[in-house]
Amino acid sequence: MDGEVVNVGGTNPTPTPGSAGVQSQVPGTATTVSSVADATGGVGPGNLVQSDLDQELYKFKSDDTPLMQLMLKAKKVKVNSPEVDHYMIDEPRSSIITTTAVAKGTSQQFVLPVPANDAAIPRPYGTLLAKGVDGYTEDGQTVTPGKDLMLFVVGHDPATGNPIVRAVNGPKTAKADEYCTTPAIPAGTTLIILSNALYETQKEVDPDLIVPQPTTVFLQKRGMNQIVSDYYEAQKKRIPFGKAVIAEAAITNFKVRGNRTLYAGRKAKFSVQTPKAGVQTVYCSEGVRYQVKKELQHVGKWTVEEIIALAKMVFTGEDVPKSVICLAGKNFLENIQCIDYSKHPEIQITSKTNPVGWVVTNFHTVFGDLEFKHDPTLDRLKWSNSAFIVAPDRLVHYQYSAEHTSRDRMEGEEATRESMLVWDALALKGSCHVWINGEASTADGNLNTEAVHYHLYDGAEAPKNPADGCVFYLLSDCPGIATNAVKGTLWQAKTTGSGDTAKTEWSEYAGDVMATD
Fold first, then answer.
1. C-alpha to C-alpha distance for 389 and 396, rounded to whole angstroms
2. Are 29 and 11 in contact (CB under 8 A)?
3. Host H or E run for residue 456
4. Helix, strand, or coil here: 345?
5. Interacting residues of 123 by C-beta distance below 8 A, sequence separation 6+
6. Is residue 369 classed as helix, strand or coil in its secondary structure?
7. How far apart are CA 267 and CA 269, in angstroms?
8. Strand order of the sheet with strand 110-111?
9. Per-residue pLDDT tens for 32-55?
10. Longest Cα pair distance anywhere in the chain, in angstroms?
11. pLDDT in tens, 352-374
12. Is the dihedral of CA 123, 126, 130, 136 positive or negative?
């Protein structure tokens, strides 16, 4: 063993982005407590997860508060703190992109230039497909148009960390050569990650560690008090307005205000001075409006083609839900209903009762079904032109204290107090949820700066003055962006400068970048 260098310890593994941008992938690392602790900075105990349902509160005034109804039916996670780490696991990346060109050469293997964050994704004995780069025949003498070049990963460059690869179906100097030489690979080439290829007696390969990444969720404590004096209850009233009617009105108010908070609440934590208990902490939960990582900008009337594009965005990609419900404002629903569907008989519009128990308008497309339901809360929030596409199976209801009631006599008063308290929060999982922003103004908090902004675009010329980072779904071929900017693809603008000096570079968009902090 003379001369062998044994490296004991080393640096901690660093998670890399998955297909939606979540830092959750640690390729080449075993799933052990130590590995996960190194990658995340420590792992705490888990929470008790159970499926439960508050039937009474769930049924009461459900049509006025559909989002709260979905929360009450969602998977419950009981926690022991009002500050919760909400974990998300991203899907593994399916592709990476070369940063610079690889020149054609005579070497059997070469370093593949990829972004630093992606360098660890290709593992030894893995294979990569270079899209758009033609391979060669088995003798390495003739190009095979349309049959992509495949690469085999042999290791990683110690200096840069980039993968070292060799061509599987590349060019050869002579027909009898066993190995291929270095082919030319342009910068910006998409490399599809394929399966590994092992030798005859091989059993061991690099393991993969998937690390959930947390975002902190604040649980908001909400309460309702109902006080009825003995004198009031004892009176024979002209109209029998008794305790039951008062309770119904109070619970209605409690639920509709809570539903608005689920949509538009802002995450906060602050202290208040209380009369009896000193300084106390108040938590405010983040509304789903600001948790959503996909935001589609669309103002005005809709077309059938745009509805189909919307279904394609929701039901294809890296996080595909089982089903979705579109909770919509009144003006948004009116625009959807007024579309002329006569030229598209394949889109079936029916009324049905969905698994939640709502009567919804169901739009059937080849990609999946969109269920539309009016949510009055959006109208009250002045978002009547907007809609929220939510996947019920991607919701988590965190509970620090389940809904409970109490009844007691007020000290020093001839009255009875009945109260209801709940301490909880609604969190979104995955990147399939979409907020459709149909408001003409971005005032009143009507712009989520942390989301990826989408636009439906129909035109041959490139969009003028696009905002940096905006993604455009093309409803028609757009050679003004690129020759391969065809109908149905997504393109992202990278804009630098402003005004007359603004410069925009376009790149095809493959996934959603999600904030994890």
1. 16
2. no
3. strand 452-457
4. coil
5. 27, 28, 153, 196, 205, 206
6. strand
7. 7
8. 95-97, 190-196, 126-136, 143-156, 163-167, 110-111
9. 444 444 544 443 333 333 333 344
10. 106
11. 888 888 888 888 888 888 999 99
12. positive
Architecture per CATH, domain 49-89+213-441, reads as Alpha-Beta Complex (3.90)
Cβ atoms 417, 407 nearer than 8 A:
yes
208, 124 Cβ separation under 8 angstroms: no
Is residue 234 very low, low, confident or very high in pLDDT (cuts 50, 70, 90)? Answer: low
Mean pLDDT of the chain: 77
Residue 260 burial (CB count, 10 A): 18
User: How far is 47 from 214, CA to CA, in rounded Å?
Assistant: 14
Paired tokens of 77: 């996670």
pLDDT digits (tens, 9 = 90+) for 476-508: 888 888 888 888 888 888 888 777 777 888 888
- Average pLDDT in the 128-135 region? 92
Predicted confidence (pLDDT) per residue in 267-291, tens digit: 888 888 888 888 888 889 899 998 8
The vertex-343 CA angle with 341 and 348, nearest 5°, equals 45
264: tokens are 């538009």
Amino acid identity, residue 437? N
Supply φ then ψ for residue 462, to 5 degrees. -65, 145
* pLDDT tens digits for range 366-414: 888 899 999 999 998 888 899 999 999 889 888 886 555 656 665 555 5
Quote the CA–CA distance of 515 and 510 in Å, as a whole number.
Answer: 16
Per-residue b or e along 384-416, where b marks 16 or more CB atoms closer than 10 Å to that residue's CB: bbbbbbbbbebbbbbbbeeeeeeeeeeeeeeeb
Tell me if 322 sits within 8 A of 393, measured CB to CB.
Answer: yes
What whole-number distance in Å separates Cα of residue 306 and Cα of residue 362?
Answer: 16
**Would you kindly state where each structural domain of the chain is located, as residue ranges?**
49-89+213-441, 95-198, 451-517
**How many residues are present in the chain?**
517
Is the CB of residue 224 less than 8 Å from the CB of residue 251?
yes
